[in-house]
Design goal:
CATH architecture: 3-Layer(aba) Sandwich
Order of helices and strands: EHHEHEHHHEHEE
Number of domains: 1
Strand order of the largest sheet: 3-2-4-1-5-6
CATH class: Alpha Beta
Helix content: 25-40%
Shape: globular
Largest sheet: 6 strands, mixed
CATH topology: Rossmann fold
CATH superfamily: Phosphoglycerate mutase-like
Number of helices: 7
Structural class: alpha/beta
Radius of gyration: 18 Å
Strand content: 5-15%
Distance between the termini: 52 Å
Length: about 250
């Protein structure tokens, strides 16, 4: 028999909820900081499939995007209550400084009764000269550049950031959350590329694979960050619409 045995599913004296079946395997009782990642709701640029990065503060949420944000708020409010019961109820909300994330975070914060803290670490990729353009327009002006930006991860658009660079940035943000204390839950309202980067960094995947993760508007993902960097990906891209009345 091995000398190393998994930690029991629950400690009767700790008051903690049992670890759910299928959760990440650990051989200690370290507690993580849980990060609930919420992508902002829909904007006009989302509908147009334009590359809307951190180079401009806008656009704001459209009407449907505000409805999505309210649905996301309902779902986040259930974390640690009747959903994902082994996770603490959120005690902090952080958002990218972009208008669409600030609006989404404001709606979530009102539901949870928490203030919103701004952190540019979790802002969207800077698309540089691709800002505001569709994929077709980018391909027309920079032939053969857009696909490898997604699939290689190291290509830098003119005046912008590569996916790998976004990963380096969000990694610093995640390290900061761990250093600020574990055994708590933080909501981070962010963007598609940035959330994919968080998920990719957390599972140790190469940047070239991050674009394969589906992160829809107002969807929810959950990562659990441990000091030893053996992080757990608990949830990826759960749609918030359809989870109950707002």
């Amino acid at each position: 028999m091995s000398d190393h045995q998994p930690v029991p599913a629950s400690d009767p004296g700790s008051g903690r909820a049992p670890k759910p079946l299928g959760s990440g395997v650990r051989f200690d009782d370290e507690q993580p900081v849980t990060v609930v990642l919420v992508r902002h709701g829909q904007t006009t640029m989302t509908v147009a499939r334009g590359y809307s990065g951190s180079g401009e503060p806008g656009p704001p949420l459209d009407e449907h995007g505000r409805d999505q944000a309210r649905a996301a708020a309902v779902l986040v409010d259930r974390v640690g209550r009747d959903l994902w019961g082994d996770i603490h109820y959120p005690s902090q909300i952080i958002a990218s400084p972009m208008v669409r994330t600030q609006e989404t975070a404001g709606i979530v914060a009102e539901r949870l009764g928490l203030p919103v803290q701004v952190d540019a670490t979790f802002q969207e990729a800077d698309f540089g000269e691709w800002q505001g353009l569709t994929a077709e327009q980018i391909e027309e002006r920079w032939p053969g550049q857009l696909a490898p930006w997604h699939t290689r991860g190291d290509l830098v658009p003119p005046g912008g950031e590569s996916i790998a660079q976004v990963g380096d940035r969000v990694r610093r943000g995640l390290d900061g959350l761990i250093e600020a204390g574990t055994d708590r839950t933080v909501v981070v309202v962010s963007h598609a590329v940035a959330i994919r980067a968080v998920l990719g960094v957390a599972m140790g995947a190469q940047p070239s694979s991050w674009s394969q993760l589906r992160v829809a508007p107002a969807s929810l993902s959950i990562v659990r960050l441990f000091p030893d960097k053996r992080h757990e990906i608990a949830v990826v891209g759960v749609p918030s619409e359809g989870w109950g009345a707002v």
